[in-house]
């Protein structure tokens, strides 16, 4: 039987349903994939993706991180994730201060309190891991740190969900998504004005007071657009990712129950389980970059001026990098290769420590709440979004 032509369409139903079969073929048959229709490249092997993530002089972030953004004429909203050095370096060193290990640890009790709150209201007979638990709590942690009042914290998540959602075949943001982006921007603009008048002990107030060097080395304050851009990014990063990771955790531990049992027997394995979840089915599937010059990765040459998909989720399943890469194994040797689930290089996840802490605590709480459970497979629903993957609905029944 001849195999169908290899097509990587990141907005197709087939891809949303299961990207991993496509990745496997790409790694084997077309590690330097080129799409003539949309004129982009895609890298799927670990050695290529890691090399490109490291080479920020060739692979630029300034045009955005998804295909529609990179192809657009207008540059994206100003935000750390869309900056190259030296601007990125200045912004990152400023923001690193907000995510010190101490700042993250100080959120521990908040995370525990929120996780407990949502589980206390949950029905073990009819529990949806995402809708009832991992959806609502991470966004509350990050928006609270940023300074968003309680009544708007869930609203931030709904705006982001709408903005990232895609119908099959839809590359750019929908009308509803645009509207959600405008509402988010207006909301944060208003909040920044309030904090300028009346500073509080929160991240937005600290960003208002902070200074970074400009192109001439003079110190300057951040403007409203920069602060709003960062607040929006944080809301997105905080709302989408841990939510997805915990949904896929419930699904994968149900598929590999021996791994769940290992955790029940020995909770010291939780941090390793978080790393394996990030490797095996991390929420961020890819980031798109733009080549500033003719460049070379181990699988070949890419000309200047092209969008390039860096398929992190594929690289993490590359058997040239990880032994038995398709096995979900919380005890695997993690020194074999760099796990790219939280990115790599200068843009690697700023919220990594927070993400790890939230995920570990959430797993701990789930082990208590549902030591034995069954997934209601018919009710499983995947999200259809640009660059993040996971489930919107993971209904489970807790077994006695
Ligand atoms: C499981 C959870 C998470 C995953 C899988 C994840 C993944 C990633 C990845 C892959 C990148 C690299 C993007 C690139 O190279 O273009 C990134 C960057 C970033 N993440 Fe996360 N993230 C998570 C949680 C968070 C949280 C909770 C926050 C916020 C507090 C956060 C804030 C950021 C920021 C601000 C950046 C941009 C850093 C920069 O450009 O220097 N992330 N994340």
UniProtKB/TrEMBL annotation:
Gene3D superfamilies: Cytochrome P450 (1.10.630.10)
GO annotation, biological process: cholesterol catabolic process
Gene Ontology molecular function: cholest-4-en-3-one 26-monooxygenase activity; heme binding; iron ion binding; steroid hydroxylase activity
Pathway: Steroid metabolism; cholesterol degradation
PANTHER family recorded: BIOTIN BIOSYNTHESIS CYTOCHROME P450, P450, PUTATIVE (EUROFUNG)-RELATED
Top-level taxonomy: Bacteria, Bacillati, Actinomycetota, Actinomycetes, Mycobacteriales
Alphabetical UniProt keywords: Cholesterol metabolism, Heme, Iron, Lipid degradation, Lipid metabolism, Metal-binding, Monooxygenase, Oxidoreductase, Steroid metabolism, Sterol metabolism
UniProt protein name: Steroid C26-monooxygenase
Bilayer-spanning residue ranges: none
Family recorded in the similarity comment: Belongs to the cytochrome P450 family.
One Pfam family this sequence matches: p450
Cofactor(s) required, per the database record: heme
């Amino acid at each position: 039987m001849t195999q169908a032509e290899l097509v990587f369409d990141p907005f197709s139903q087939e891809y949303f349903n299961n990207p991993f079969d496509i990745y496997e073929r790409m790694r084997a048959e077309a590690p330097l994939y080129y799409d003539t229709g949309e004129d982009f490249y895609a890298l799927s092997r670990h050695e290529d993706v890691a090399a490109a993530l490291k080479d920020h002089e060739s692979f630029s972030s300034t045009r955005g991180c998804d295909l529609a953004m990179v192809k657009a004429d207008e540059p994206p909203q100003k935000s750390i994730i869309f900056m190259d050095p030296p601007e990125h370096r200045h912004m990152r060193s400023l923001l690193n201060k907000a995510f010190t290990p101490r700042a993250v640890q100080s959120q521990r009790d908040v995370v525990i309190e929120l996780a407990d709150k949502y589980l206390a209201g949950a029905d073990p007979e009819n529990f949806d891991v995402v809708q009832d638990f991992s959806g609502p709590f991470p966004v509350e942690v990050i928006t609270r740190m940023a300074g968003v009042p309680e009544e708007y914290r869930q609203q931030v998540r709904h705006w982001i969900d709408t903005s990232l959602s895609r119908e099959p075949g839809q590359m750019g943001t929908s009308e509803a998504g645009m509207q959600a982006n405008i509402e988010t921007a207006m909301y944060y603009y208003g909040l920044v004005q309030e904090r300028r008048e009346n500073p509080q002990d929160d991240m937005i107030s600290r960003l208002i007071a902070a200074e970074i060097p400009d192109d001439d080395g003079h110190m300057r304050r951040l403007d409203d657009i920069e602060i709003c851009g960062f607040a929006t990014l944080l809301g997105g990063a905080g709302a989408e990712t841990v939510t997805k990771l915990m949904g896929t955790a419930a699904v994968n531990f149900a598929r590999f129950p021996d791994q769940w049992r290992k955790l029940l027997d020995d909770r010291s394995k939780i941090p390793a389980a978080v790393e394996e979840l990030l490797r095996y089915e991390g929420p961020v599937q890819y980031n798109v970059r733009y080549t500033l010059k003719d460049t070379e990765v181990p699988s070949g040459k890419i000309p200047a001026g092209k969008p390039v998909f860096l398929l992190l989720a594929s690289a993490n399943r590359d058997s040239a990098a990880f032994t038995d890469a398709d096995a979900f194994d919380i005890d695997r040797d993690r020194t074999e290769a760099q796990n790219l689930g939280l990115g790599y290089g200068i843009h690697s996840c700023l919220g990594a420590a927070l993400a790890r802490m939230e995920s570990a605590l959430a797993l701990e709480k789930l082990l208590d709440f549902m030591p034995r459970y069954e997934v209601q497979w018919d009710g499983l629903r995947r999200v259809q979004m640009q660059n993040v993957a996971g489930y919107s609905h993971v209904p489970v029944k807790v077994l006695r």
